[in-house]
Specification:
Layout lengths: L7 H19 L1 H4 L4 H35 L16 H11 L2 H4 L1 H29 L1
Length: 134
C-alpha cells in the first residue's frame, strides 16, 4: 500500500478539543461559579468532552481500518493482486472506502455535542428559574 497518512481533518480537532478540555480543567477553580456562569462552563465542558470522544473514536477507527487493510498487501507494492485478494481483504477495503461517517465526524460531532450541551443548559436554566420562583 501507499505510505500511511494520518487523517489530519480528524486529528487536529481531537487535539484542539483535548487541549481546551485541559485548559478548562486546569482553570476550574477560577471558572467554577454558581448560577448561570457555572452552568455555562459546565455545558462547555460537556460539549468539549462529547466532541472529543466522538472525533477521537472516529480517528482511531479510521487509523485501525487503514492498518488492517495494509496487512493484506503482502508484497508492499500498493496494488492488491493474486493471492492478496480474498473475502477478508474485500471487507477491509470496503470498510476503508465507505468511511463517509468517519470523515464528517468532526462536523456531526459538533452538532451532536451541541444538542447534548444545549439540552443540559436548557434543563439547568429551567431548574434555576423554578428554584428562584419558589
Amino acid at each position: 500500500m501507499n505510505p500511511f497518512h494520518l487523517p489530519y481533518h480528524l486529528l487536529l480537532p481531537s487535539l484542539l478539543s483535548f487541549m481546551l478540555l485541559l485548559v478548562l480543567f486546569l482553570k476550574r477553580k477560577q471558572l467554577n461559579r454558581t448560577g448561570r456562569r457555572g452552568l455555562l462552563w459546565t455545558a462547555l465542558f460537556l460539549f468539549l468532552s462529547v466532541y472529543f470522544v466522538n472525533v477521537s473514536y472516529a480517528t482511531y477507527d479510521l487509523i485501525y481500518s487503514k492498518m488492517e487493510l495494509q496487512e493484506f498487501d503482502l508484497n508492499g507494492d500498493g496494488i492488491f493482486t493474486g493471492n492478496e485478494i480474498n473475502p477478508e481483504q474485500k471487507k477491509a477495503l470496503s470498510n476503508v472506502a465507505t468511511d463517509t461517517s468517519r470523515n464528517f465526524s468532526f462536523i456531526f460531532g459538533a452538532v451532536k455535542a451541541g444538542f447534548i450541551a444545549g439540552f443540559y443548559l436548557s434543563i439547568g436554566l429551567i431548574l434555576q428559574f423554578f428554584r428562584k420562583s419558589n
